[in-house]
Task: inverse folding
């Protein structure tokens, strides 16, 4: 009985850490590749083509916006994440915005909200009794329920998009985008734009550190996650039941 409870605890932590750490670690392997931006009054459609090539994102552009012109120039090479943020800023200056729609990013006029622009809930949401929120910063996790969820970790990793977070030109964690309602990330109290910087007080900025931490914490029954939310530090506490 004790061995089975221990196994559930291991599987629960493994599932959660796999979903939190491994996607970002895998993407961070290529985070060092830099690009240089030189768009001087370039049409929006041409900039979008370049952004798609740089970031691997799929775009949909409103027909009436194709000929809008953007200026985005970088004096030095920048990361893909920095390039995309600069692109979003240029869109905002022109009164436009980028809205996540499943596998695509829709470029539209600001305040134009089509019916399908909301984030779709996951097809198989995390059961209510799998993760219980105790207060604003504490959660209790059912090892038994997470054992079942852990059979399809690859599906859990699709519950949000995780990219390397860069600070002063160095990897400093992983940032979450498009966190879907009912997903593991949402049930763990994580939100769109949150940056995971430490797990159990250990930094996870590089893929090597993330994977090393993943191996170390498989047997943990409690752990903490430090995040940045709108640049404000925040700590979450989790216990495996």
Result:
């Amino acid at each position: 009985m004790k061995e089975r409870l221990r196994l559930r605890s291991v599987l629960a932590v493994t599932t959660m850490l796999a979903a939190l750490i491994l996607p970002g670690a895998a993407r961070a392997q290529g985070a060092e590749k830099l690009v240089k931006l030189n768009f001087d009054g370039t049409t929006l459609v041409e900039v979008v083509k370049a952004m798609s090539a740089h970031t691997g994102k799929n775009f949909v552009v409103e027909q009436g916006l194709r000929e809008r012109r953007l200026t985005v120039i970088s004096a030095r090479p920048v990361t893909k994440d920095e390039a995309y943020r600069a692109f979003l800023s240029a869109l905002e200056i022109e009164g436009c915005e980028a809205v996540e729609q499943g596998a695509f990013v829709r470029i539209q006029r600001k305040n134009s909200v089509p019916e399908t622009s909301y984030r779709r809930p996951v097809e198989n949401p995390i059961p209510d009794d799998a993760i219980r929120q105790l207060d604003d910063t504490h959660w209790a996790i059912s090892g038994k329920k997470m054992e079942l969820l852990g059979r399809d970790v690859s599906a859990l990793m699709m519950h949000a998009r995780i990219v390397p977070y860069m600070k002063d030109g160095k990897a400093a964690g992983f940032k979450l985008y498009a966190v879907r309602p009912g997903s593991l990330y949402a049930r763990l109290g994580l939100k769109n734009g949150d940056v995971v910087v430490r797990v159990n007080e250990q930094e996870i900025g590089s893929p090597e550190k993330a994977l090393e931490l993943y191996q170390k914490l498989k047997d943990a029954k409690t752990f903490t996650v430090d995040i940045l939310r709108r640049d404000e530090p925040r700590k979450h506490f989790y216990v495996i039941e």
The chain has two domains: 2-31+119-240, 34-117. Residues 2-28 form the longest helix (27 residues).
